[in-house]
Amino acid sequence: GIPVCNLAGYSTESVAEFIIAAILEHIRELEKGKNQAKGGNYSTDRFSATEIKDKIFGIVGLGAIGGRVAEIALGFGADVRYWSRNRKMNAERNGLKYEDADKLISEADIISINLALNKDTDNFLNKNMIQKLKSGSTVINTCPMELVNIDALEQRLKKGDITFILDHSDEMTIKDLAKLSKHKNCVIYPPIALVTKEARITKQKIFIQNIENFLKGSPTNQVNK
Q: How many helices (H) and strands (E) does the chain have?
């Protein structure tokens, strides 16, 4: 299938948990609640949170990270569906449903984009796809924003009927960040999805192992140019 963003291996769990955390932070209105309580207001009158359970949870790209997100979402009781270049029969036996990308995009209440950036996925979330997003849906992309048509996304954000979450802000132009950051329904994080103690330790172990294997004459994790 399509590989996940180039984070799998040392940070699969870190990124997958961040995706779920960012979704929960939004749909449970956690920031709003914390800020309101800090101001001394403990009323629940203006909250309209929703749950993951029974929602259609779409995974676009079922590699290591997408697969882990799917497992967690199944644990919440979501109706988890996926699209990947190749069908994953093991995943389907475990409760996932395969759908064409267009159908999945139009039906899902929550969508996690987990694709590597390459010539086939560049502008994957194009104008046509973005127009098909279900009203009220939440979309999270923890991969390069070249996967997304920024102008089309901005136009959809103006309608105010979707939420888009991203964390690859460090790789975006100031111009594109300015387009998106003015919309309250676009949640922008620093690139923190892969930042955990565990991911850092695992990355160091892989780095050391790569050196050791290279010195033994059997290099691992080579980058093809």
A: 9, 7
